[in-house]
Known about the structure:
This protein is α/β, with parallel strands linked by helices.
Amino acid sequence: MTQFRSIRSYFASRQMTPFDFQQLAWERTAARVDQLIQCPTGSGKTLAACGAILDQLMADERPQGLRLLYVTPLRAMTRDLELAVVEPLEQTPHRVMCRNGDSTASERMQVYRKPPQVLFTTPESLSVMLSSPKATTLFANLQLVVVDEWHDLWSSKRGVQTTLCLARLRQLSPNLVTTGVSATLANPQEALEALLPVGRKGAITSSDLARKLTLHITQHDTDSRLPWAGHLGMNLLGPVAKSLDAGITTLMFTNTRSQAEHWYQALSILRSDLKVFLHHGSLSREMRESVETALKEGTADLVVATSALDLGVDFQAVDRVIQIGSPRSVSRLLQRAGRAKHRPGEAIEMQLVPTHRLHLNEYAALADALDNHSLEPIRPPALSLDVLLQHLVTMAMQAPWHADAMQTEVCSIQAYQHLDSQQFAGLLTILSKGSDSLQQYAEFRRLVQLDDGTWAVASRQIAARHRMSIGTIVANTQVRVKMRRGKPFGEVEEQFAARLKPGDVFRFAGKRLKVHTLRDGELLVTPASSGVASEIPRWTGGRLPLSDTLAGFVMQRMGAHQPVSERIDNAEWLNHELQRTRALQADISHVPTKGRTLLEQYRSRDGHHIWIYPFAGWLVHQALAPLIAQRLATQQPATITWTVNDYGIEWLCSDREPIDRLLSDWEDLLSDHCLLDDLQSALQLSELARRQFRATARIAGWIFQGYPGRMKSARALQTSAGLLFDVLSTYDPEHLLLEQARQDVLREFCDLDRLRETCERLRCNPPQSVEVTRPSPLGLPLMIERLSARVSTETLQMRLAKLTAGFDD
């Protein structure tokens, strides 16, 4: 076969042969077929996506502008991918460049002055490039755009932003071919459709390079038992430390940054003979990049990390992966396991470290899900109007646009296919005057309509401010952590920093730090002396809810005894441990069964306890618990407190009347009738929406964060957002940005769709009530969660010792 001769020669020069799926991907690109390439991590997806264009470039000695645009979610990935593509083009006149937030001003200008043939960038930087009038020329000859890690982008507003950029690229280059690259997805057809214009057909290109995954669960090397609750997992520190070897690069994943800090400090002391590093999203870019370099070069023995290393940066030197606790989803397990032995088709083993006994059930459920090829379907956000407002101003900076043409362009992508003319007109009103109550303020007049009917940026000042905010997709507001005399070395969430008082001590970046003051968006700290007690950092980043797919397999496993999958190499031991847990649960209470909802009643010195187990994850439970409490208290005044975890809910009340009403009014309490109104009362949604509005307003461009070197403090930004929220709530309560903030709260705080599904399932599964004389293995973690928040450590240990007496006999 003479087709793709150049790229095949490159493969042959390195003693490689293209896989069938790579060849198929090249053929589809050459035939201008849009596609989604999905295959296991480390299988050669990058060359599959780029190979056809690289083949053309290797055979063509005449550079003809930008031909291939490669979009990745992380800056670190742009550097790695650039190196991977540079090699085939080394002997050609074609240039490869990287354009992201770390690029210098001269590098950014070079993209326009002398366009490369291959450009790697991020969604944010792509938005910035599209804001320039020069974008029309830059992208005129573009043949292929590749969107990497599409499964990660698609699940967030960054994916919406990406598809808006793709819609504009198709206007600039009508013959553009789109290729998405992703890990294995549960709903690949939907993912492909989200990437393409509405109604356009594409192809899914999959590989058969299955990587066999074996799971190994860490066991105690003594007679000590796993605890019944807890999240750090330090009881298994000894066996984990012994399993580490010098010269074998190990990547250890934790689910929270506080957990990562704890394990890093402990292993640095216990295994001082190893080169141990720490990596999480709150650390400074310089610290993170130094750790990533050590991983790539194989000079690190161990890196303790969070989900910041989940995505596909190529770390070929990684030999082993350890997961502390549960990964909380099947897809995350595969993603993290794929970081090891980043080579096509190579078998991998993942070491699982339970932090408490119920994690053993999750491990067995994970193996069941893998055997059934069950992954979590992604539920992307839709109709994100704040992102669209930002994009409309960005496009006006490129060139004035007509409303009808722009609405057609926007509605060509799946995220906005149901945007109607009335909503689009509302967006134009926001862009032209903010609202009727804000029209006298010039800063909200961002676009003006010209005599020819087109919409343009209102002023140079508006354009300058917007240029500094392009690409902003806000998560949690961050404050910088900085030594009183030194450079910043990371960030923590504002909510965490605001709770700290001068003199408080916490762990961060592997150091023990004492708070000096919080001022102007910076948390000033000093090194803490060894004699001062330490506080575990509990900033929000990193807490992962149980996925609905994994929750379903956990419920199945709890409700029916079945052997553990053979992909767990110590399955016999795990079978024995699970039988012990089931037997203890059955002895004290009942084992949850299909078609019924287990409801446990318990009387303690604190009051009357109710435990139910929907197995829907803490995100749903933290909305369901106050919802039912609110409905119970509405019927008759009562004081009810609640606690939640991934498996269940505990309500505590002073008398048993709420228990009787919960049993008698089960279906009414779970009704969908007036659900939003009741959630509003139960969760104080208006206050949550007020907090969310700051992020919504910043994305939409309503809140200016300040000029470089003169950034506004978090308090100033919150004050500005609060004033805007109050004005709109009073004078324009139906404003689109207020509604956007409310919808984001319902999606992110309580997962409204899944909450409704859970309520419907529980209505169809009547309660199986049982009175217990002590907390069961399922109820005990909920009680511990509540007790740990209000009793001293010593008292808590004493009470738990009594509650668990006999559990491990």
